[in-house]
Amino acid sequence: MFFSVLDLPFINAIFMNPVLIAFTILLCLKLAAEVLLDYLNLRNIQANANTIPDGFRGFIDTETYEKSVAYSIAKQRFSIVDSLFDTAFLAVLVFSGVLVWLWAKISELTGTGLWGQSIGLFLLGILLSLPGLPLELYNTFKLEARFGFNKSTAGLWISDKLKGLVLSTVLLIPLLTLILWLVNLPVWWVWAAIVITVFQIVMLVAYPMFIMPLFNKFTDLEAGDLRDRLMSLAERTGFQARSILVMDGSKRSGHSNAFFSGLGKMRRIVLFDTLMNQLTEEELEAILAHEIGHYKLSHIPRLLLVNVVITIAAFAVLGWLLQQPNFIQAFGFQWQPGLYAPTFLMFSMISGLVTFWITPFSSIFSRRYEYQADAFAKKALQGDGQPLICALHKLHKENLSNLTPHPLYSAFHYSHPTLTERETALRED
Ligand code: ZN
Q1: Which residue in 374, 384, 398, 429 is the catalytic one?
Q2: Nearest Cα to 356, choosing from 23, 30, 21?
Q3: Cα of 244 from ligand 1 centre, angstroms
Q4: Model confidence over 81-100: pLDDT tens digits?
Q5: From ligand 1's centre to the CA of 298, what distance in Å?
Q6: Which of 38, 283, 285, 291 is catalytic?
Q7: Is 374 a catalytic residue?
Q8: Can you give the pTM of this predicted structure?
Q9: Whose CB among 110, 140, 183, 376 lies 3.0–4.6 Å from 116's, allowing a Cys bridge?
Q10: CA 50 – CA 66 distance, rounded (Å)
Q11: What mean pLDDT is predicted for residues 22-32?
C-alpha cells in the first residue's frame, strides 16, 4: 500500500522538491503546535470546570463561572476548527494547482505591469478571504451571540466589510505598487522597509483619528466627577490629556476594553462605553493609569522599533527569494524577469507559517510591557494596587474570560499576563 501511494505523481512531486518538503513540514508543524496548545488549554478548562479554583471565589459566582467555562470551551473548539480549516485550505490551494490557475486568470484581466500585478494580488487576496467568511459569521452571529456578546447586525457587518474593502483598496494598492516599483533599485529591501515604517507611523496617528471614526462614534467624556477625577490623574502623571474619549463599543459587542493609541501630541486614550458601565470611578481611574503607563514608558515607539527590525529582515528574505526561480517554480508558477507578484504571493502565504514561531517571543515582550504599565498604575495610585485588581476581576468576569488557561497556552499566545500573574505582581511591594 505504502509504495503505491508513493507512486502517485503528486506525492512524488512533493518528496522530490526541497521547497515543497519545507512547505509541507512548516504547514504540519504549525498545525500540530496550534492544535496541541488548543487541546491542552481545552483539557485544562475542563479539568477546572466543576469547582471555582481558589483565588477566584471572591469575585465570581458559580453561575457566571460555569458560563465562562462554557464560553471558553466553545472558543477553544472553534479555534481548533479554524486552524484545521486554514491548514486544509492552504494545502488544497497549493497542491491542487488552484492557486496558480487563479493567478493566471486574474493576471489575464489585470495585466502584468506594476499596477496590474498589485491589483491582481489585491483581487486574489479578496478571493482567498471569501471561503473563511462562514467561520467568521458563525463566530460573530452564533458563538458570540449565544453568550450574549454579539450586538452587531447583518447590516452593520456588511457595511463594516464594505468600508474595510474601500479603505484597503485605497491604501494597499498604491503601497504595493510602490514596493513593487522599488524592487528594481539596489538594496531595494532597505527602501521597502523604510516605506513600510513610514506607512506604519502615519497609520499610528491616522488610524485613531480618521479611520476608527468611520466605524465607531467617539465622544469626549462628559463633564462631571468622573471626568474631573480622570483629568486630575492625567495631570498628576504628566499625560496632559486634552480629552478622554469614550467609544461606542457596545454597537458591535458586549466585550469591554480600553486602549491607548497614537504618538506624541496625537496620542489618545479611549474607554469603551461597555467598560464605563461595568466599573466604578476608582476602577476606571486605575485602568486609565495603566493606559497612561503605556504612554509614559514609551511602549509604542519601542514596539515600532522592533517592528522596523522585523520588517527589514522580512524584506531581506523576500529579496533573496525573488532571485530564486526555484522557489515559485516549486509551486507551479512560471518565472519571468520583472514579474514579482508570484514571489510576493507565495511569500505572504508562507510567512505566517514561520512568523507563528515568533508568537511566544512577542508575547513575552508584550507581557513585560503590561507588567510595567500595571506597576506604573499602582504607583500613580499612591502604591495602592487594589483598584486595578478589582477592575481586572470585573473585566474577566464580564468578558467571561478563561480563568484557567494552560500555562503553555498562555505563555505562547497571551499578550497580557494571566489574571493570577497580574494580581500576584500587583500585591508585591
Ligand atoms: Zn495594557
Answers
A1: 374
A2: 30
A3: 16
A4: 999 999 999 999 999 999 99
A5: 12
A6: 291
A7: yes
A8: 0.90
A9: 110
A10: 8
A11: 97
